[in-house]
Specification:
Family (chains A, B): Belongs to the peptidase S28 family.
Largest interface: A-B, 45 and 45 residues
Number of strands of chain A: 9
CATH topology of the largest domain in chain A: Rossmann fold
Function (chains A, B): Plays an important role in the degradation of some oligopeptides.
Oligomer: homodimer
InterPro entries (chains A, B): AB_hydrolase_fold, Peptidase_S28, Ser_carbopepase_S28_SKS
GO molecular function (chains A, B): dipeptidyl-peptidase activity; serine-type exopeptidase activity
Protein name (chains A, B): Dipeptidyl peptidase 2
Strand order of the largest sheet of chain A: 1-3-5-4-6-7-8-9
Structural class of chain A: alpha/beta
CATH class of the largest domain in chain A: Alpha Beta
Strand content of chain A: 5-15%
């Protein structure tokens, strides 16, 4: 669901290393006011014997800069599949809202991501990896919130959870499963339906395609034609031509190598659709403003479609222009998530999650989308996952555990989605009750609303954030009133 | 929380062996219409690697005798700590209600109890025992309901869960955590607050005492005086006198032996208070009608208090009059539940649950109750549990996981309690909203309302069952209407 390019991982590592070695006063200023801390967390919430009563160090970021102590609400970001700093630095709306509503802000890192590795670098072995589940993550957050509230003398402070993408799913689940701990949830771009198996395997790449088509129908045609030309070269086994036109570091030598190249190329379009923000960003890679528009301009520039396709992929993989050739196996790794798992440790953890609880059987078919047909069936997933992780996915489980689309008993959840985001139609698009509110952000990409204000923001996201602020403030007041009655 | 005497276990085993070897037509008639079946259940819902993707055979009883096929509701008993036949044969209200409301009835056996042993007789070793948790049990029921509904062409049939005692806790939790699967819950005598650590460690034995006191204040005094006389003999180390007066099979020889005897005696009063039904029963042992009254009559018959105490204990332990002596270590086993764990495999499983998630740190103190002071602190529990099961209890966990007393976001739960039941004040006694309804059964013992109608029933329980029937019927209709809107 998320991919962090090698570039970003390195940049972030350098940044964090700097931060960690900085003197305290500098730490504060460099870290946007966050303190980085570690919480002693239960290793296995659902088994008292498996690994003894072990614990691990779970990282979290905290700032009380805006907090009305022991009174203001707690805004808690339910970290998802990546380094928690990445989410903190790309979710400025939460601190802006904290400033308005005098809130304490906590960003909690998901177990098995970033520096919250229960078994260090050995966390991704079998069976160590097996304590990576959605349920463990939710239990982590519940225990952490409960204990931190006591430590911070904040037991009467209402808690609102925030999350984007898989983090948004976790925010929804927190409100469903732990409403005594969490008074409300802002779930931005959370595909809770598709990941529960309630969807259509062609939806995702169809919606990616629609973004490019909406810029210019010729853009879709050009991309299709380019992929078709690539296919023809592959049929002819003209691998040296494929290498030269795509500037590959190695000559492909098999159908598998071509499949890998197709995956790499498709992934570039996926990323540009998701991250189609109206200004340049450094989130999940370096991206220009309006990358879909940039891509279509590139695709439609002259008649060398294969060269255009290479340059379009370069927007994502070669933003700096420093790469001399594309290493298709290091820039993109095929995994149990056809929308991409990213690279490095985080990608292994996400691959495991896509192999167990989270359904991501998306396919491109070249009919409803502009990409080569790349089937990924439940059977393909099973074969891959049993080989890679010695697990069999349970496609029905997430729906059983987290209610699927039967949410009528829930309350106080905002489902925000941007209509440019290919994840949007895997989520809740219509309000279900007065407190299960769907917000559509016209012209918005992947959880644009969680980002800090920017002068290039469309009016839709400004309005969305205003609605979100009002609802959250209302939930906080209601929760406070309920607590007062109890006292 | 429940104890099954050796006597009942044997009787039940004989009964079940008969049933299993019986020809089908006899099976139906002998089994109150239930078919006994086994469901292939996931071994570990929360870990995809721990024991591979193993399964086990989970037993359930089912009858469609009253069911309006593919339309009527499903009444699902969330089995608790014992053989599922015991609950089915002592919860006649559910089939009576099924007959009225054309429901399918299922009694599901809790993992690690009865014949639902994931690892057979080896289930109680470490680490095999570690898959015994409340969360696994709830996941079992959720998966079972989902799959059976498909098998039985019953996907549109609303499900109501029923449970008594710990089974009632599970029913509540099902509605809290899986409301998309379960439309409502009747939780009879479910101590969801005390077991979550929201209570007072002296409550239980104080309420046992109150039952006897309410028959006659002299009854309390007589019991206290008898225990005091026993204490004096113990101080004098007059063990042979203790043996003779209590007809023990072995002579006590230590303070520990006397503690064990005190535990055995206190347990007899606990059982009589819990099972103080207005007619004789064969549930958790053989019990006369109104056992508390019988006990007080026995205690106040003449002046030999120690003999009276022995005879009172005999009501529970020697109902048939066949025992020549009391073997204090085989009739009662001390464990992590001071209200008793029972005997045999089931008691081991319950001990493990009391050592991990379920808080049962009840103490008698000889001030607010009539029993000898028998402290059982959190520290005592930790020491015992780490030695017995290599686990450390997590006293805060149940409250975090199942909301404690913060239930305002829940709906469609009946909390019924009888005011004779020492478990009652560990549960919800006041209605919280119009759909979180507390029912008090005046003169009712432990989940009397779940038992089948009896001519000795007090008006209170007849009224309670009527209210329950109305609420359940209302929930079913509401759920059906909601489903119709979706179709």
């Amino acid at each position: 669901m998320r991919r962090i390019s090698a570039f970003v991982t390195v940049t972030l590592a350098v940044f964090c290393a700097e931060v960690l070695s900085a003197p305290p006063h500098r730490l504060q200023s460099r870290n946007h006011g966050y303190m980085e801390k570690y919480f002693t967390q239960t290793l296995d919430h659902f088994n008292f014997n498996s690994m003894g009563n072990g614990t691990f160090k779970q990282r979290y970021l905290i700032t009380d800069k805006y907090w009305k102590k022991s009174y203001g609400p707690i805004f808690f970001y339910t970290g998802n599949e990546g380094d928690i700093w990445e989410f903190a630095l790309n979710s400025g709306f939460i601190t802006e809202l904290a400033a308005q509503q005098q809130a304490l802000v906590i960003f909690a890192e998901h177990r098995y991501y970033g520096r919250s590795l229960p078994f260090g670098n050995d966390s991704f072995s079998i069976p160590q990896i097996s304590l990576l589940t959605v349920e463990q993550a939710l239990a982590d957050y519940s225990v952490m919130i409960t204990e931190l509230k006591q430590q911070l003398i904040a037991t009467d402070c209402p808690v609102i959870v925030f999350g984007g993408s898989y983090g948004g799913m976790l925010s929804v689940y927190m409100r469903l499963k732990y409403p005594s701990i969490v008074a409300g949830a802002l779930a931005a771009s959370a595909p809770i339906l598709s990941t529960a198996g309630l969807g259509d395997s062609s939806q995702f790449f169809r919606d990616v395609t629609a973004d490019f088509e909406s810029i210019n129908p010729k853009c879709r045609s050009a991309v299709m034609a380019a992929f078709h030309q690539l296919k023809e070269l592959a049929v002819l086994q003209d691998y040296s031509r494929i290498q030269s036109v795509f500037a590959l570091c190695q000559t492909p030598s098999s159908a598998q190598d071509v499949r890998q190249l197709n995956g790499l190329l498709r992934n570039a379009f996926t990323l540009m659709a998701m991250l189609d923000y109206p200004y340049s960003t450094q989130f999940m890679g370096s991206m220009p403003a309006n990358p879909v528009k940039v891509a279509c301009k590139t695709m439609l520039n002259g008649f060398n479609l294969l060269a255009n396709l290479r340059m379009t992929a370069g927007i994502v993989y070669n933003a700096t222009g420093q790469l001399k050739c594309f290493d298709q196996y290091s820039l993109y790794v095929e995994c149990a998530d056809p929308t991409g798992c990213g690279l490095g440790f985080n990608s292994m953890a996400w691959d495991y999650q896509a192999c167990t609880e989270i359904n991501l059987c998306y396919e491109s078919n070249n009919v409803t989308d502009m990409f080569p047909p790349m089937p990924f069936t439940e059977r393909d997933r099973e074969l891959y996952c049993s080989k890679r992780w010695a697990v069999i996915p349970r496609p029905d489980w997430l729906k059983i555990q987290f209610w699927g689309d039967e949410l009528s008993t829930a309350s106080n959840i905002i489902f925000s989605n941007g209509d440019l985001d290919p994840w949007a139609n895997g989520g809740v698009r219509k309000s279900l009750t007065s407190s299960l509110v769907a917000i559509n952000i016209h012209g918005g990409a992947h959880h644009l609303d969680l980002r800090g204000s920017n002068e290039a923001d469309p009016a839709s996201v400004i309005n969305a954030r205003r609605t979100e602020a009002d609802l959250i403030s209302h939930w906080v007041e209601k929760e406070r009133a309920a607590l007062t009655v109890l006292l």
